[in-house]
Design a protein that fits this description.
The complex is a heterodimer.
Chain A: E1 6-12, E2 16-25, E3 28-37, H1 43-53, E4 63-68, H2 70-76, E5 83-88, H3 94-97, E6 122-125, E7 128-129, E8 135-137, H4 144-153, E9 158-162, H5 171-183, E10 188-191, H6 201-231, E11 239-241, E12 247-249, H7 250-255, H8 263-278, E13 284-289, E14 294-300, E15 303-304, E16 306-307, E17 310-312, E18 321-323, E19 327-328, E20 331-333, E21 339-343, E22 349-355, H9 374-380, H10 398-412, H11 416-438, E23 450-454, H12 458-469, E24 473-476, H13 483-489, E25 493-504, H14 510-530, E26 538-548, E27 555-559, H15 565-583, E28 591-602, E29 623-630, E30 636-643, E31 652-654, E32 657-660, E33 665-668, E34 673-676, E35 682-685
Parallel strand pairs in A: 1-4, 4-11, 5-6, 5-9, 9-10, 13-23, 23-24, 30-32
Antiparallel strand pairs in A: 1-2, 2-3, 7-8, 11-12, 13-14, 14-15, 14-20, 16-19, 17-18, 21-22, 24-35, 25-28, 26-27, 26-28, 29-30, 31-34, 32-33, 34-35
Helix pairs in contact in A: 1-6, 2-6, 8-13, 9-10, 9-11, 10-11, 11-12
Chain B: H1 5-29, H2 33-36, E1 41-46, E2 52-58, H3 60-63, H4 66-77, E3 86-89, E4 102-111, E5 114-124, E6 153-157, E7 160-161, H5 163-171, H6 176-204, H7 206-228, E8 234-241, E9 247-254, E10 259-262, H8 278-293, E11 307-310, H9 328-343, E12 361-367, E13 374-379, H10 410-417, E14 420-427, E15 441-447, E16 453-458, E17 479-483, E18 489-492, E19 494-500, E20 505-509, H11 524-532, H12 538-545
Parallel strand pairs in B: 10-11
Antiparallel strand pairs in B: 1-2, 1-5, 3-4, 3-6, 4-5, 6-7, 8-9, 9-10, 12-13, 12-16, 14-15, 15-20, 16-19, 17-18, 17-20
Helix pairs in contact in B: 1-6, 1-7, 5-6, 6-7, 8-9
The chains are: A alpha+beta, B alpha+beta.
Amino acid sequence: MSKSEQRVATDVGGTFTDLVAIENKPDGVKITTAKTDTTPPNFEVGVLNVLKKGGMSAADIDFLVHGTTVVINALTERKGVTVGLITTEGFRDTLEIARGNRPDFFNLHYEKPTPFVPRYLRTEVPGRMTYKGEERAPLDLSGLPEILQLFRKEGVDAIAISLLHSYANTSHEEAVLAKVTEDWPDVSVVASHQITREWREYERTNTAVLSAYVQPVAANYLNKLNEGLSAQGLQNSPYIMQSNCGVDSLKSTSKTPITMVESGPASGFWGAAELGKLIDEPNILALDIGGTTAKCSLIENGEVRIMTDYWIERTRKSSGYPIMVPVVDLVEIGNGGGSIAWVDEFEKLHVGPHSAGALPGPAAYGKGGTDATTTDANLWLNRINRDYFCGGDAPADITAVEKALQSVGKKLGVSVDEAAQGIVRIANNNMVNALKLVSLNRGHDTRDFTLLAFGGGGPMHAVALGQELQVKKVVIPTAASVFSAWGMMMSDLRRDYFITQLASLEEGAASNIESVFKNAESAAVKTFSEEGVEKTKVSFMRYGKFRYQNQEHTTEVLLDKGITDKGIDKIAEDFRVAYEREYTYRLEAPVEMVGIHLVARAEVGKLVMKPGKLGGKDAKAAVKGTREVDYALEGKHEATLYDGDKLNPGMSFNGPAIIEDAGTTVVVHPQNSVSIDAYRNIHILLERDS
Amino acid sequence: MSNDPITLEIIQNSIQAAADEMFAAMRKTAMSSIIYEVLDMGTGITDAEGRLASSGAGIPAFVGVLDKSVQFIVEKFGEDIKAGDVFITNDPWHGGVTHLNDLVLAMPVFADDQIIGWTANIAHNSDVGGMAPGSLSGEATEIFQEGLRLPAVKLIREGDTDQSVMDIITCNSRMPDFLLGDVWAAIASVRIGAKRLEELASKYGCGTYQRAVESFMDFGERSARAELTKLPNGTYELSEPQDDDRVYNVKITITDTEFVVDLQDNPDEDAAPTNTSRDGAVICAQMVFKSLINPESPANDGSFRALKVLTREGSVFHAREPAAIGFYFETEVRINDLIWRCLAPHMPERLPTGSFSSICGTFIGGIHPDTGRQYTIIEPQLGGWGAWEGKDGNPCIFSSFHGETYNTPAEISEARNGLYVDRMELNTAPGGEGQYTGGRGLILDYRIRTENGFLTAGFTRSKVKPWSMQNGEEGSGNYVEVNKADGTQETYSFVSGLSLTTDDVVRVVTSSGAGYGDPKKRDREAVKQDVKNGLITPSRAKELYGS
């Protein structure tokens, strides 16, 4: 390629539309960022605006990847369409019965979530499959015309089809789908097997229903985006970020847009996995702290963990709604920079989950916010530069900060300093508990992991969290505040197939298991080739989901290519080892397979990073002063201030220090030592080598 | 610094996280569906004396069990408690509280050579021996018929499994593989919890750790007492006839400092397995108390300090050894509802109208036609809950006894149990109407696929229906109906060991919740929606709601 390649990631959030452009120039990588307001309902306008603001011309862009919260927003704001459901006779109420759980169990006024389809639009057809996928009673479609007539009369815009045991045999669902399409060609329709091939009828039915609910909205959004961009001269159709850390084509995404539901955090975690490979840190605890939440995920041997146990609106107070799509395994808590600190009636301090949002925002914004937030506490403790707040865009309103912290301190009976320290410590503790959920609680020893922190708030808290968890080291990526966008540009075209298939691991089982994988692989190759991706470019990873006989929950094990009878014993042993690591014991009981998880990937020309030259160690050139910083448990120290933009590969220095650039502040504690790698990532060793 | 309120709070949060982690670990590794799916289990952490410091998720009826178990073990073993020991009990007269199926495991946590607390869990095991498969039989008249009694013994001594005890336990079960898997899941769970507490104590020091636990309990007590003063003072009494014509009685006295539940005036214990231990009765009162006072915060020892429960030894609510107690849960749910019903008219803003209020325990077993292995279904059922001012009741959720509990999907049940689930839908039988309607109950059809199966079930609120308030309609009632392949049909509320064969259909029918307020006052649009949704027939709508 003679000219430099232009790659752009755009991200439409609830408030802002962001752009990050990366250009690989002979003298290194050039990163451009821009931000504009999100423009509902014509979101594509915001995307075009942000391109313009960033000085991009659509015609010059080689590779555009797009992330959007349109699906999750349509769901949580209930802005989808009217859905009609067709299901198996005797099961119209599955959606309303749900699982019957009461998470808030002492609360006698618990309110069960309302189903997305009212009872009169939940219809049934006779016909049954068994769990083995054999037909028990033939499908009877004689009632379908009447159902469709009802749907038309009631203004249904989208139809979901979900039949019992369709994960094992899709033919009944396919027949209903074909007939619906034939009788009503322009209605939006989805069958559950098109999204998932796993069992549990409530979860699968709800997935189909929520997919139908957002389908017309998302398809319309993607169409307008595509039209808007091609009108501006974009040559290659954009790729769309998915919840499984991959990207997918716009066309494919339009069919089952529900797969975008958790795409926001996915790109950052994928970025963490890719960066880990680049810097030879395959085991990573990734932490993304934004304005309202903190999210974390664990990466082992360079692989993110993808699961289908995803729920929206599920809290300690509500059972929520399941969506059985491949989503990166993450824990999210309401603990971000804008999280509000509050004292309950028993003088206990809490931070979050309520957030001050963009308006009024933290007290420091001076926009009328009177609640103290984590950001305010960080400001008061001098971790954030009072004169360089928000990259110098706005001076911090310290009077408002003090007032807000005073109010917290008064309720606790402590000073303003102690209140601020308390807020940071409680916020850190919340995040440590979240990080433990993805690591220690699953049998991983955090000492084997590198903590990679990004997002606006990650670098500020990372060292304190890393010290608590005794991680190997802490890494802050270059341009940490837009790291998610970088992750998008590192993504492959990726699809995760989860298929429930019971199989024993006895003799002769190999050919059966092998054929399940083979069938899934050829189906994947077929869809890829329909989209112009050659067979040779597609690579696979095979995981099996195993358990001891009679158990329910499974442990995923990575399998070698080509399953043979000889290899079966090794598979069982691999399972026993993985199981023992997570749960501390092993059993003599037989092992069985419950399903497969196939990952199909095709590279679509992702960004190749080039290392810079390591220069001298001396970092004096980047020093811009000193200030006294309150490190809470470690007391107050005079910290050296470094200008992040001036830190070059090879430089190193010791804490206490603060590194500032336009988007982030890195807090380096007294005992730490810092070095800058060839890609300008910041490596922080927790204990100084002396 | 180490005794500042923030440090104490961080330790408290970490203890809560440990209880949750114990719960998650056990759930994921258990073998019995009653544990991993239904989550008929609980985890907890106590202080050195066995006072509840924190409880994990699970079911509210198990929250108050574990402290009582640990207290018994501490009393029994005294100095003979060593690091690495794990104790097991299931007998209500030896710290077990509930019934023999529920194995309680407890492990002392040591730091600086002293006990700083205990981790413990309880879970329903599929079969612990006794006269009937699944160990529960309506025919039992003595506890000896309900399974192996474990009177609080050491299962693991200083880290080494006592194989003799393990062998005795597994040998006495009809499903030894399941039992072994479930016991190991429980061991892993107490060990993980203990490890976390040791880490906390070593990081912050034993003294600080213990102060955090103390202050957490004091916090529980303060928050309970603060709310108690907001309840209307007075003495309230209710006598309620039961399905079997016995009459249960409760007297409740509320002052600003005490909440006294008097259950003394109740029938003598009987030969049927529906007795409960005194501890079981206490837990029922604790559940209502917690719901009234402070449903949001986690429960600990302090939460219940203002509560007093009076029982009479030898009564059905305070059974003496060796009474049968297998179906204690159905009695507990009655006590719970009795207290609830007694208070609801006096504090309707805190208590909805009556719900289906039964475990509707359903036990079906036999041979799986495809695998040839024994299967056992042990399931509580979903049902309708009562309405309250301004709100219709919830359809199909678990009773007040169960909480973060999940029903079994039809797809999984068919694979695991080798039967067919012909339907699982809302029960639209008349009942529960009102200005605000009760939520709908369930209809669940199990079609048996092999010979030599059995059904045991124990439902209450079958004849005496869920109670309404303000002239709403009472609920529809719980029962189980067996439609035999030969065309005959029987209806039961209690049935034990009924033979089932191919193509028999067991239909579980659970009640709607009761209505609140006069049906005539129901919003017209809401009535229209009820009819449109097929929740009520047009003719009954006309009859009850008017035009």
